Amino acid sequence: MMAGRKTPAGKGGGKSGSKAVGGKETGSKLGGKSGSANRMMHTKVKTARGRKLSSTLWLHRQLNDPYVKKAKAEGYASRAAYKIKEMDDRYRFLKKGRRVIDLGAAPGGWTQVCVERTGSIPEEVTVVGIDYLQMMEVPGATILMKDFLDDDAPQALIDALGGHQPDVVLSDMAAPTTGHRRTDHIRTMHLVEVALDFALKVLRPGGSFLSKTFQGGTEEQLLNILKTNFQEVFHVKPPASREGSVELYLFARNFKGRKDNEVLDLTPED
């Protein structure tokens, strides 16, 4: 099931006041038959000299992950495509004609889904992605190979969108892991804060913000900012997110807008 906890807008932050929303959701299961037949379908990873146990376990998981197999069969860049599909199926933020900015877009699965669902075409691009990593071309999207943390990146994104305000800002950014959980959490939360700051400057009134975070506590100040600026805020764990993963998503919708309703000048000062 997709877990979802709603944090009512406009109230004090933190964990208090959160409540479950939606309830159980059913759907077709991936992965085929269970029991001995399912075990026979698994691909066994042979040991290799010099390969760490963690690498062997990761490879085994990849080879036997039904979402990985489905992504390969359906032409998606990664299994992450199904995470955003599942979240959009529930919250309906990728409607036809909506303009979307995808932060941390590589390898491209989220961007592909955004193009499909918004109807973005090469002649009228409404989806822009950015990442400093090389990624596949996605027809119907403009891809900037650039670090979002560069000073000129925010303005470059708006320029690529033709100067228009986006309806949706997505962030699947995560800092490279160090193995120290608290450090990794702090570094990723910084990326969430930077993505949110950008979203608050450029989103159209009524727009949505979706960002990856990690379980372990969302900073109270961040939640307060979200609840002050959006009518609804949710914590979401889509079914495609691996069991046991500390990955979690923050989704906020119905942006209240800025006083002037103008896109701010994002050009860095001298």
Characterization of the model:
It is built from 8 helices and 9 strands. With 270 residues, the protein is of the alpha/beta class. The chain has one domain: Rossmann fold (3-Layer(aba) Sandwich). α4 runs parallel beside α5 (109-118). The longest helix has 22 residues, at 181-202. The protein is globular and about 45 Å long.
Write down how many β-strands occur, each being a DSSP E stretch of 2 or more residues: 9
Low-confidence stretches: 8-41, 53-60
Rg, alpha carbons = 19 Å
**Main β-sheet, spatial strand arrangement:** 2-1-8-9-7-6-3-4-5
What is the helix fraction of residues, given as a range?
25-40%
CATH fold call: Rossmann fold
Helices, by number, come to 8
Integer average pLDDT: 79
The CATH superfamily is identified as Vaccinia Virus protein VP39
- At the first level of CATH, what is the class? Alpha Beta
Largest sheet: 9 strands, mixed
Question: What is this structure, in a nutshell?
Answer:
With 270 residues, this protein is an alpha/beta fold. Helix content is 33%, strand content 19%. It starts with a strand and ends in a 15-residue tail after the last strand.
Topology:
Layout: E1 3-8, E2 19-20, H1 36-41, H2 53-64, H3 66-74, H4 80-91, E3 100-103, H5 109-118, E4 127-131, E5 141-145, H6 153-160, E6 168-171, H7 181-202, E7 208-214, H8 220-229, E8 230-237, E9 247-255
Parallel strand pairs: 3-4, 3-6, 4-5, 6-7
Antiparallel strand pairs: 1-2, 1-8, 7-9, 8-9
Helix pairs in contact: 4-5
